[in-house]
Amino acid sequence: MTNEGARVFREAWIAGVRKHFPGEPKPSYVTPWEETPEWEREAAGAVYEQVRQFLELSGGHATRLSREQKGRFVATCWTAQMYKHFEDPKPGYVADWPDLPDWQQETDSDIFEAVEISVK
């Protein structure tokens, strides 16, 4: 897991929140990398690597997934990280795709696409 990949993930998250969140996001949603908690850095790096490997193992063809499929993949990987880092995660941390707010679904799709760009 690379620190660089984790930063790509975090920067895509922040950009997505700023673009898609209705109104003013919570400060924790847009915390700069330097102030991001260690567990969150680790989770971001792990999900980045999962998306990168998914793209690699598909021979690059995972780029053909729909935006929703891309976002669902990111959301599922993130949920697994929440179970790894928290014994009893907040329900919002582990919500299933249909239960995520639209802004978060769009942001997760943006993250997948940011990883695509970073590995080209």
Descriptive report:
With 120 residues, this protein is an all-alpha fold. It has one domain. Helices cover 62% and strands 0% of the residues. It contains four helices and no strands. The radius of gyration is 13 Å and the shape is globular. The model has no long low-confidence stretch (mean pLDDT 95).
How does the SSE layout of this entry go?
Elements: H1 3-20, H2 38-57, H3 67-85, H4 102-119
Helix pairs in contact: 1-2, 1-4, 2-3, 2-4, 3-4
Number of extended strands: 0
Shape: globular
How far apart, in Å, are the first and last alpha carbons? 17 Å
* Count of runs of 4 or more consecutive helical residues: 4
Give the helices and strands as they follow along the chain. HHHH
pLDDT under 50 segments (min length 5)?
Answer: none
> SS-based structural class?
mainly alpha
Q: How many strands, what sense, and barrel or not for the largest sheet?
A: none
Q: Helix amount, in percent?
A: 55-70%
Rounded mean pLDDT score: 95
Can you give me a brief rundown of this structure?
With about 120 residues, the protein is mostly helical. The protein contains 4 helices and no strands.
